Amino acid sequence: KDLDADEVVNRLRGKPGTKVTITLAREPEDKNAAWTTKEITLVRELIKPEVVQYRMLEGKIGYMHIVDFSGHVSEDVAKAMAELKKGGMEALVLDLRYNPGGLLNAAVELCKYFIDGNKMIVYTKGRKPENYAEFRSDKSAPFGALPMIVLVNGGSASGSEIVAGALQDHK
User: Fold this and answer.
1) Which stretches in the chain have pLDDT values below 70?
2) pTM
3) Which of 15, 19, 89, 169 is most solvent-facing, going by the fewest CB within 10 Å?
4) Sign of CA dihedral 70, 72, 78, 79
5) How far apart are CA 148 and CA 40, in angstroms?
6) Residue partners of 79: CB distance under 8 A and separation at least 6
7) What is the spatial distance between Cα 74 and Cα 106, in angstroms, rounded to a whole number?
8) Judging by beta carbons within 10 Å of its beta carbon (0-12, 13-18, 19+), is residue 142 exposed, middle or buried?
């Protein structure tokens, strides 16, 4: 009570394996009754969010949803693509809907699975000429010939726009 979100997070974080006790308070349905509380003890753990979700669809079509472009997305995509290929995937639906972006290098690495030939993926440019940087595909891409569609929506931003744009530009 009376803490902002950052303070709550700081109190919840701690060394994995240690315990933290929280108190939940619930407002009663009857406005004249008292609030009810319950204490819960949690064991802290390292949490690695699942940012790549995948499955096989009918017709040998793989489906992969990327939640955001955080640190381990490239490794997670490699694992997902290997599993989908093993399952007989012949085409892919890449779902970037509601993906807010994240790390530029993670978006670039995803493009390298599908775009080959040292093609431009994206470039960054600053006020000073020395801040210009190009990000290009590798000579070959493991899934460069794989038929695919990319799903985006109004919630797709930043890195997901880079991926969708690069894939569209290079057909």
Assistant:
1) none
2) 0.75
3) 15
4) negative
5) 46
6) 52
7) 6
8) middle
